Every structure is written in structure tokens, then in C-alpha cells.
Amino acid sequence: MTLAFNRFPNQPNQIPEYQLAGVNPAAHPSSAIDSGLNQQDYFGVLAMNGAVGSSWEYQIAYSAHYNTQTFYPDSIGDLIYQGVASNVFTSDLSNTLETDLTYRNGPHTFRSGTYLGEYGVESDQTSQVFRLQAGVPATTPISITANLNKFNLVYGLYFEDTWAINQRLSLNFGSRWDRVTGFTFDSQFSPTINATCKASESLVVHAGFARNFQVPNFQGIPANTSQLFQNTTGAVGSPSGGGPYAETDCTWDTGFIYKISPRLTFAQDNYFRIDRHYLDEGEFGFVPIDVPFNYVRGYGGGNGNSLTYNVENFTARWNLYFAREEDIGLASGQYNFPPDELAYIDRHYIVLDHTPLIGASGGTAYRWHDYLFSIDGLFSSGLRSGFANQHQPPKV
Q: Domain locations in the chain?
């Protein structure tokens, strides 16, 4: 269970953008705006597993998850400084059932399973905004209500075989099928194959391919809500194009683990990904509640390296990675972007704003009797921002 209530820092000395009939702006400085976000999260799991003889194993798991987000506005301050005051409640109650079955037969280990998830989503929003008349905002607010209840189903099954071909080489291959209905209707077969080779006592090499299917986050503000705010001070970005859609990825991965000495190990992993309808999340303009949207297509790639050193009572580790993620076009959630930025993204690949290009981390730990001393460090080249994510992170 997780409970959190967040208040947001205010910017003092801001000039009111709008006039509210009967209200003196001087009595409501921007430093006194009082709005907040209440988040609650509850999660529980009941699982049973066992074995039948030496060849069969099974597991059945049921889970329930309930989470809510409630945004409380400052009914006067939000109106005069940003032209909209929204009270928003969103919730997601999910019930899932998973089954897994394992059968071992000589060099083969067969696994299969099913997944069934039911997600009941509620979104209730009441907003006070000013209507625009010939581009000029009124001084008396109107109320806009957008409520929604929706059930979403996600279900699928998988089958795979791990084949120990010999003492050095093993192969894992299989496929899964998934389907989602509700906000999104889609389905997909997702094959996968991975090979691991113990080239020597010191070197293990792996390579693989997987097709993935990812459904959007059901909890959030529905995309069509933006259409209700046209010709008001609550209008955001460009009209939405529908969605969100499920995401499809194809990923290739290679790497190795090399034991330089009994105490020193180096590992490297490389990947390349192409995607369709890549899922990202933005905020509904004036409410800090995420809304999913999709890019049309894109690609990504990266390289990760790690070095670890272990002796009795002492360990040291170092990690370095390079990554780049680019996409083009907006397939849904266009209202997250102003028209000029939307037009630019539809014609150009842009670097996504949630993956640093370079990152590094490291640390050491030393145990002395009953005490553990550790030092950790983290470096990141930073995240892009600004128009179409063209603003580079500042140099430090």
C-alpha cells in the first residue's frame, strides 16, 4: 500500500493572465496558490505453486491492484493565472489471473502459460474555464464535465522450449499471443528466439530476437477529453487523432560475459530496436496526470558495459552505457503539442526526452565485522527538452 499527497512549488510575482468577475487579483498572489495531487496505491497477490513428480511444475497466481489519482485545484488561483481550474479523479481497479506450467523432458524444458486481466477504469473531471469570444476570454467561468467508465481486457498465452543442445550451447524459442480490448482493440503474435553459447570457461556469448506487444496505461485522462475544451481558455495543443494504440517492438540483442580473472568480470550488451506506435506519456496541459500517446514509428539502439571486482569483504563495480532513441510522427495524443511542433515532428525524427545519450554509474562496498561501508556515484548526460526535444542538456 502506498499513500502520497503532493503539493507543487509556486512561482511568486506572476502576473494574472485572466480576470475573474468579483475577484481582486492582489488578494490571490501566485505564491499562495494551493493545489495538490493525492495518490493511493493498493496491491495484493495470492499464489500457489507445486510439483507433480520430477517432471511437472505449476503455478497459479491471482492479483488485485487498485490505484487512484486525485488533483485538487485552487479554484481562484488556477483560474486567474492559467485560465482553468480542474478537479480530476482517475482510478484503475484490476484483477488478473496468471497460470504457468513447466515440463522437463531430457534436454528440453517446455513452458506454457496464460494471462487474463480485467481493468476497470474511471475518470471524472470537472473544470472551470473561460469561454473565448472572438479570441477574448470572458470573466465569468463555465463548467465542463467529462466522466468516463470503461472496462478493458488483456488476455494471452505463451509457449516456449529451452533446449540444452549440448554442454556449451542452449536455445530458447517460442511465441506468445496477446489481445487487448477496451480503449484499444488489437492483438499480436510475438515470436522470440535466444541462443547462449559457453565459448570457453571464461567467455559466455548470447544473441536473440524478440517481438513485443505493449498496451497503453489505462489510467489517465481519455484522449477525446481535449475536444471538449475547444474555444475556451482550457484548450490544449492540436486536435487529437484518436488512440492510444498498442505498441509493437522488434528487438535484436547480442552480448557477452568475460571472466578476466577469478575476481574481475566484464560484461557487454548491445541492442537495436524498431517500433511502431511507440508509447510515451505527457500531461494534460494544466493537470499533472499522465496521458498516453503514440509516435508513428522509430528506432533505438544502445550499448551497455559493466566491470565488477570482488574479493572477500570488498566489491567494486562500474557501468557505462550509450543509447539513442528516435521517433517520427504523432499517431495519437496530438493535443500534447502545439501546431508548429506537431508539424515538425511529423516530418523529422526527434530524440526522445526520457533516455540520456550517455550514462555511467559505479561504487564500492566494504564489510568490516558487522559494518558495511559503501560509496556510490551516478552520472547522466541529461534529458532533452524544449521544442521537439532539440534543447541539449546543459554542460556541467
A: 2-389
pLDDT tens profile 117-149: 999 988 888 888 888 888 888 888 888 888 888
Q: How many residues does the chain have?
A: 396
Q: What is the CATH number of domain 2-389?
A: 2.40.170.20
- In angstroms, how far is the first alpha carbon of the chain from the final one? 39
CB 91 within 8 A of CB 65: no
Cβ-count burial 143-156 (b if 16+ within 10 Å, e if not):
ebebeeeeebebbb
Task: Output the pTM of the full model.
Answer: 0.83
Is cis: bond before 244, omega within 30 of 0? yes
Contacts by residues 137-140 (CB-CB < 8 Å, ≥ 24 positions apart): 137/18, 137/19, 137/83, 137/233, 139/18, 139/19, 139/20, 139/21, 140/21
Pick from 121-135, 244-258, 315-329, 369-383: least confident: 121-135
DSSP secondary structure letters along 61-123: EEEEEEEEEEEE--TTHHHHHHSEEEEEEEEEEEEEEEEEEEEEETTEEEEEEEEEEEEEEEE
Q: Which percentage of the chain shows pLDDT scores above 70?
A: 92
Q: Phi first, then psi: what are they for 352, rounded to 5°?
A: -70, 155
Cβ–Cβ < 8 Å for 330, 279: no
Backbone angles phi, psi at 111, to 5 degrees: -135, 145
Average pLDDT over residues 268-285: 87
